[in-house]
Automatic annotation (TrEMBL):
Entries under Pfam families matching the protein: DUF2911
Name assigned to this protein: DUF2911 domain-containing protein
Biased composition, class Acidic residues, residue ranges: 28-42
Spans annotated as Disordered: 27-53
Source superkingdom: Bacteria
């Protein structure tokens, strides 16, 4: 009697264990689709969408990746983006560039590689554009460390009449152009 009882306990336990742990391929597939859908919807629901631009500058491959915030009626310069403080030049994670070959930025050499890109806006005069060796920063300027700066250049901002709602960083003449609200910041790259 005791042997039969023990056998029944093992059979029931085994059946429960098997039924709880086995998934059909259809269930596993549905679970994966749900995970992928959640990742896509979180990417789509970002207030500042991730933008990736690729192109060529002087015949060399160039890529820039950044979060594109919107103005949303806010006061940007000197308020949301303070003057004389390092700004991640976008939103969320640090903006970064990827150069396939050595290039010159405002006449100074920048070796091939990936770099985070920051700016220091100024109320008057030229802005500082910074290329930093720590390119994969999840929290942008909050993780910025000046000791990792590879290159700093000075660039003259231009103020235009027509406002642009979303920040854009485009690969175009004279190399890279940052636009947001009424700002146009052309960076000469060759």
């Amino acid at each position: 009697m005791n042997n039969r009882y023990t056998i029944w306990v093992f059979v029931i336990f085994g059946a429960l264990l098997f039924s709880c742990s086995s998934k059909t391929s259809e269930e596993a597939s549905t679970e994966m689709e749900t995970m992928e859908s959640t990742e896509e919807s979180s990417e789509e629901s970002r207030p500042s969408p991730l933008e990736v631009k690729t192109g060529q500058i002087s015949g060399k491959d160039f890529r820039v990746q950044y979060g594109s915030p919107a103005v949303k009626g806010r006061e940007l310069w000197g308020d949301l983006v303070p003057y004389n403080v390092v700004w991640r030049t976008g939103a969320n994670e640090a903006t970064y560039v990827d150069l396939s070959a050595d290039m010159t930025v405002e006449g100074k050499t920048l070796a091939a590689g990936k770099y985070s890109m920051f700016t220091i806006p100024k109320e008057n005069g030229k802005w500082t554009v910074i290329f930093n060796s720590e390119w994969d920063l999840e929290h942008g300027h909050f993780q910025y460390d000046e000791k990792n700066d590879v290159l700093r250049v000075e660039v003259s901002p231009e103020w235009v009449a027509e406002a642009q709602e979303r920040l854009s960083i485009d690969i175009e003449s004279p190399g890279l152009v940052i636009r947001w609200e009424k700002l146009k910041l052309p960076i000469t790259i060759q």
